[in-house]
Design brief:
The chain is of the alpha/beta class and about 600 residues long. The protein has 17 helices and 24 strands. The strands form five sheets. Strands 14, 15, 16, 17, 18, 19, 20, 23 and 24 form a nine-stranded mixed beta sheet that branches. Strands 5-12-11-7-4-6-10 form a seven-stranded mixed beta sheet. A four-stranded antiparallel beta sheet has the order 2-3-1-13, covered by helices on one side. Helix 5 packs antiparallel against helix 6 and helix 12 packs antiparallel against helix 13. It is globular, with a radius of gyration of 26 Å.
Length: about 600
């Protein structure tokens, strides 16, 4: 089993070239020009430092140790060095997908070479070599070496690379500042789109080469976090520019503007900068082999595999959006069985529907349902609870949204609000109209894509206890394992504790819904022990009929043992000796180069009366 854990790291290391940052030459006191160039080489690079809330940092240092947490924090600022692709085996084979990806790479390389030839005819010999592959870097594509995951393909990337920004004295490069979320997407292989651009140098025209830097949230006067950059502000390349000092070491590459400065801040959508030179070079899979592949993190794929769904079973994915694990489960079952996916967002349920249709999966049924209300309430005694009021509000909200577009016009929900209000006033305690309207707004999640498409979603009032053979709870979490990450300071000790309590309530629902003899798999994408090991401790101590089960494949490392106690008297119990090897903890700084992730699998014994 230990051999299986290192297969990913070995395979990637064999296919990955090491890149190290250029160390600028030490300046001579008599050579001011060299000093200037050295200073700029320090500025125009990618060397971010992740800042944490002091209490959160202290908590993690006690959990992992200061050195280990420092490595984790550094790894979180960088993307994985490879892309992980799940092949839809109902439509394609691993071999055919690898062949198609290699063909796409060759066509792209040829097109890039022709573009270079068009712009510089003197380099025709170099272009010829590039097409033949003698000078260009390729991105090897290879099958996942982990036993049982032969339907997973790795596509190697590279980085960090040293970018030459061509800084000259008194003439800094033209540049744009992008939002932190835009930058994180670019580091994963995306382009820079117009909505993500915050600021731009003066006199930028279409076709100009620009350096791309990141505006990260900064603390405000009221404890709030914001970039503080007014969109459209002109950059002068001076220290008076917004976040000039803060952007040192936060340059993610350079590209060619697809619009002039005026167009960038006039248009609402579209490609803003075509990234031509990146700090990290990872393949983009936007609209590539749709229906045949799905880009997914390795731990997420392993989670579905650990659940071990069998054909003909009834499976529940409690927090299913956007549908990656849901579709992975259905694929493992060969689309034979019943996969129920729920999410409380109307728009996200539509996303699950669309993904299932794209992959050609028919065994998936998606519902709009809050996982905290997944167990159907008993209303046989005629009483109406707050939960039943919210259920009716949810149903009416969905019906109103759909009916508005079926009839060709948008109808105000005020009439339906009054009907619900009058009905519930007769049956239960008083609830103000303002509170009811507030609840409706919450459930609608704002004007989403459904108001443009008129998409309908299935209504659900929950499920009876013991309804499912297996339940996957990929719980909403602090997401502190996702990478690349350039900002983490918004999380506090209090917010981390709230996440843990929220997940316990969801787990309580999962326990009721799975049948005796069934399986529960719990997973998160966070490094927070309070949402991982502490949840396992809660589950085992609260439900004596649950037991940790071995996992296959076993790729991640062991869980954390012991407990944590803070100065305010708060404490967490983690794993006990013997339990640590029954869970999987994926370390972002580990040899597998994955996101931070956690998986626990429970066998369900006979339930107590």
């Amino acid at each position: 089993m230990k051999r299986g854990r290192v297969l990913v790291g070995e395979a990637i290391n064999r296919n990955n070239r090491k890149f190290s940052s250029r160390t600028p030459p030490s300046p001579s006191p008599s050579q001011q020009q060299q000093v200037l160039l050295m200073d700029q080489s320090e500025r125009y690079r990618y060397n971010p430092s992740l800042h944490w809330n002091p209490q959160v940092e202290d908590y993690f240092c006690k959990a992992y140790g200061p050195q280990a947490f420092s490595r984790i924090s550094k790894a979180l600022t960088r993307p994985s060095c490879y892309s992980c692709i799940r092949v839809n085996t109902l439509k394609a084979t691993t071999e055919s997908v690898i062949e198609k990806i290699l063909e796409i790479q060759h066509e792209k390389k040829l097109q890039d070479a022709l573009n270079n030839l068009h712009t510089n005819a003197d380099k025709s010999v170099e272009v010829s070599k590039t097409v033949n592959g003698s000078t260009a870097e390729t991105s090897p594509v290879f099958k996942c070496p982990i036993p049982g995951l032969d339907y997973v393909v790795f596509l190697k990337g590279s980085g960090p690379h040293d970018i030459q920004y061509d800084y000259q004295q008194d003439r800094p490069p033209k540049e744009v500042i992008v939002s932190r979320k835009c930058a994180e997407a670019v580091l994963r292989g995306a382009q820079v789109y117009v909505p993500g651009i915050l600021a731009c140098s003066a006199h930028v025209e279409k076709g100009d080469k620009v350096a791309v830097s990141v505006g990260v949230e900064q603390p405000g006067r009221n404890g709030e976090w914001a970039t503080g950059i007014t969109r459209g502000i002109v950059l002068q390349g001076l220290k008076t520019d917004p976040q000039y000092i803060e952007r040192d070491g936060l340059y993610i590459g350079q590209g060619i503007t697809m619009l002039s400065r005026a167009g960038i801040f006039r248009d609402l959508s579209g490609l803003g900068v075509d990234m031509t030179d990146r700090v990290f070079r990872l393949a983009s899979f936007n609209d590539v082999l749709k229906g045949d592949i799905f880009l997914q993190n390795l731990p997420s794929i392993i989670t579905a595999h650990v659940l071990d769904p069998q054909q003909g079973e009834r499976i529940l994915d409690m927090c299913a959006a956007p549908g990656g694990k849901t579709t992975a489960i259905a694929s493992l079952m060969k689309d034979k069985g019943e996969v129920t996916a729920v999410d409380r967002s109307h728009n996200k349920v539509l996303e699950i529907h669309n993904l299932a249709a794209e992959l050609g999966l028919n065994s998936i049924t998606a519902y709009k349902l809050d996982a905290l209300k997944a167990v159907r309430k008993d209303k046989s005694n005629g009483t109406v609870t707050q939960s039943s009021i919210e259920d009716k509000l949810s149903q009416t909200s969905q019906q109103t949204e759909s009916a508005s577009f079926v009839n060709g016009e948008l109808v105000s929900p005020a009439t339906e609000d009054n009907k619900i209000y009058d009905e519930e006033m007769k049956k239960g305690p008083y609830t103000s109209k303002a509170e009811i309207r507030k609840q409706i707004r919450r459930m609608k999640n704002g004007p989403g894509k459904n108001q443009a498409t008129g998409g309908r979603v299935n209504k659900c009032e929950g499920f009876l206890p013991n309804s499912f053979d297996r339940v996957l709870l990929d719980a909403p979490c602090s997401a502190l394992g996702l990478r690349p990450r350039l900002f983490a300071a918004e999380e506090t000790i209090e917010s981390l504790r709230r996440h843990g309590k929220y997940q316990q309530r969801m787990f309580d629902q999962a326990v009721q819904l799975v049948r005796p003899g069934g399986v529960i798999v719990y997973s998160t994408c966070t490094i927070n022990p309070g949402e991982n090991e502490a949840l396992v401790r809660y589950a085992l101590d609260t439900y004596k009929f649950l037991s940790l089960a071995p996992q296959y494949p076993k790729v991640g490392g062991p869980g954390l043992l012991g407990r944590y106690e803070s100065s305010d008297g708060y404490f967490e119990e983690w794993l006990k000796p013997g339990e640590e090897d029954l869970v999987q903890r994926f370390d972002p700084s580990g040899p597998h180069d994955t996101i931070g992730f956690f998986i626990a699998k429970f066998n369900v014994g006979p339930k107590e009366a």
